[in-house]
Each structure stands twice: as C-alpha cells, then as structure tokens.
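Bench notes, bay 3.
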Amino acid sequence: MPQASTTARDDQALLVETEERLVARWSAEGVAPDTVRGAVAEAFDRLAGARVRSFLPILVERSVRLRLRGA
C-alpha cells in the first residue's frame, strides 16, 4: 500500500519545482525572484504541519498568487 504522505526530500523537491515555476511566471510580470521565493517559503511554512501533502503545490501556488496579486 502506498504512503499517503511525502518525505522531507519529497517536500524539498516540490518546493524547488513549485518555486521555479512561480519565479518564471511572476518574473514575466515584473515581480522580483526573491519576492516570489519568499512568498513560496512562507506558504510552505504555513502548511508544514499538513497531514495530507499531495495538494501542497496547488495550495502554495494559490497562496502565492493571492499574495502577489494583492501586493
């Protein structure tokens, strides 16, 4: 039976993948890469205690999008 949660290494890979995608997208809109990275790190930190980790990239992207649109 497959595990429902991911390991710390999986989380790190998701963080890097999500961060790269969002930096590319928001850089095209004139947002500094460090601003995007900070928003991604903050969103992942808020979700660090989540038991189900499958949707972390989607939730992080949504959080970053809302934050950067409001900035």
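Next record in the batch:
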Amino acid sequence: MRKLLPALILCVFFLAACGSLQMSGEIKAEPVQAPQQSSSVSVKPEEIVEQDPDGAEPAQTPDPKATIDLSKMPNEAGKIMVLMYHNIGSVEKEWVRTPENFIKDLTTLYEKGYRPISLTDYVTGHIAVEQGYSPVVITFDDGNMNNFEYLEDGTIRKDCAVGLLMDFHGKHPDFPLEATFFLDGRIPFRQKALISQKLDFLTEQGMDIGNHTKTHENLKDLTANGIQEQIGAQAQFLSESIHREDYVINTLALPFGGRPKDESLKKYLATGLYDGLAYENIAILNVGWKPGYSPYDLRFDRESIPRVRASEMKVDQVGLYNYIAYFDKNPRERFISDGVAEIITIPEDQKGQIKPSAEKEIYTYSPIQKP
C-alpha cells in the first residue's frame, strides 16, 4: 500500500494539471475536417450560374418567350407586303403618286400598325419589328429625279420621294427610314454630277440601292450573255459609284417582270459573270400582284418575290388599299411580329408550313378565338 501511494499522488496531480490547462484555454482542439467526397451529379453548362461577389442571389436569365404578349396574336407565318412605287409627281397617274397621296399611304400604314424594314432583312429573316406590328417593304423602280432631287442650294427637294420619307420619319421616329431604290441606266436619279453624292447619302441613311439592269430591257428574250451583261454591268457601275467598299449590290427588280423563256437561262438572274466580275442576287423581285410569303415559310422563294402595286389606279383590286382592307378582315393572314428576334412565334395550326431553323426557336401557341 505504501508503494502505491506515491503513484496515486502523481496521477491525481497530473489530472489536476490537465484540467487546469483546459480551463485556462491554453490548449485548443483543432476541428476535424470531414473527408471530401466526389459528386456523381453532372451539371449542364447552362445550369452553371456565376456567383455574385457580394453574396446576393444570382440573377436568373429570363425566358425570352415570357416577354411575348400572346394577346397581340403574333403570327410570323403571315404574309408581308413589298410595295412597288415608281414616280412622285403633281398629277396622279397609273405609275405616279402625288406627294399628298404618298403621305396618305405612309400615314395609313403607320396608323394600321405597319413598320418598314429593309428588303435585305426581309429575305434573310432578320425581322426586328416591335411586337404586335407588321413589317412592310418599300421599293421604288427606275430612279427618276422625282425619287431623289437636290436643289441648287444643296438641299433635298421636300416633295421628292426621299424628302417625303425623311420628313415622315422625322415626325414619326418609330417609322424607320427604310426603302430600296432600284436603278437602271448610267444617270440614276437624273442628275449626272450628283450620282455618287446621292448614292452615298442613301446608303449612309440606311436606305438601299438595288439593280434594275443596264438599259431596262426585258430579259425574257435575251441570251445568256445578254442577261449577264444587263445585270452584271449595272451591278459594277452602281458598286463603283458608291464609296462604301463594304456595300454590295445584291438585289434585282426585273424590268416589266420579265424572266427568260428558256428555263436553262433563269439561273443567270441570281448569279452570273460579266467582264470578269461575278454578281449574286439574294432577292429577285417581280412586278406584282400580291403580298409575299413569310421568309420562314416553306413556300418562300427569294428568287421570285411578288410585289403590291402602291397605287389606286388600274390596280385590278390587288393594290395597296385592297390588301390593307384584306388584312383588316383577315388578321390571321398578316405577319404580326412577336418582338423577339431569336424566336419565330406562330399559331399551332400553322406549324406545318414553317421550315426548320437552326438559328431561331419555333414557338407555337393556341390562339383564343374571339366571339
């Protein structure tokens, strides 16, 4: 017993010392880290959201379809009017619109919910029109001076086509300054000293220049060489007259609507070669007589685009105001934008007429029939 006493005293002393050290906080237990485990859940790239450095909840990317107001009955399978004008003059004629009537046309289009787009945007399907509104394409043929005239003081004549378009756009900024002028001959707009100045001005303003052939000759009876000269020579002349190196003449309005009788020659309307230089047209326009298909429609043919006569004389019930009235009565036939460029919105029952798109999502819905 005496031998054990010293050992017991030492144990008691040691335990007391350890308790004293823990109470004083001089010894701290290190936390034990749990071993990391590999996750078997795969995360898709689109599910990865960048963390906010401030610790706030990360913002979710909104679904663009959520911004589409289906009550506006969008239908991007509907038809689009490509309007055909020729002259602006003091007396109304079959191929002449007075300044007053031209402004009436623009005002009617504006109030009816139509908004101009470029011909290029139409044929390529890049339609950026506010939702609930309809695109329309404005074109002028021949390039007469009443389309675009400079006065002696360097100002633009107010009642020529360009002057009227610019004035209307100034009063209605949400009516874009978009129009294509198809030009033939070597003196477009008939002021020889001002050719490049005019073409440069139009392209700088966002309007476009198109090909109407070298001498406005009907192409139906020409040879392969004749067709290529009419189109290729004019494309070269117009390109050389425009100082923008990136501007390409690639749209064609057929004089008299004429196409080669020989089927094997029709390919030269779209592509060809003249004087060692190639041309390629992304749009070929006819004379009339109806609205064109949506560029998303399986039936759309950029090499045969119909136009609507923008007149009220001798239009045989297929003029501008006839089709405005038709679309008023048949709104499901009219192209109505969804306002979202990357989505094609259409009624469910029209899905079968839309061609597949690698660039745009096709969004269908079931319209509520109004009583």
